[in-house]
Amino acid sequence: MLSLPTTTPVLKVMPMPADANVHGDVFGGWIMAQVDIAGSIPAVKRAGGRVATIAVNSFLFKQPVFVGDLLSFYASITKIGNTSLTVTVEVYAERQRLDGEVVKVTEATLTYVATDESRRPRLVPPIATQPA
User: Fold this and answer.
1) Which residue, among 87, 82, 91, 76, has the nearest Cα to 110 in the 3D structure?
2) Where is the signal peptide (predicted)?
């Protein structure tokens, strides 16, 4: 049986009936929006401010998501460029109607660009180094 990752999720949400079709299957577009929000969280923290989504590099729906599933979004930065950050997001569902079964439902890779107040690309600040 699959279990949730040991790291802390950046976002947890439970889809509601308004997020689904008449059969209770959550819309893919709703999931994509949540993935974008989750991916932006580490990007904003690392960039030290505003970011904009510039690419959805990959997006895979592995399992359906149902109304009432508790979704956990895990995001990590996989690449840092001069102005851009690439983030991988994995989404797990805890099935409420199946005794809490955990399934990986989505995985995606998105690219964000750090922007200034004029919404123009800016450099991602370097990581501060600790004195030796």
Assistant:
1) 87
2) none
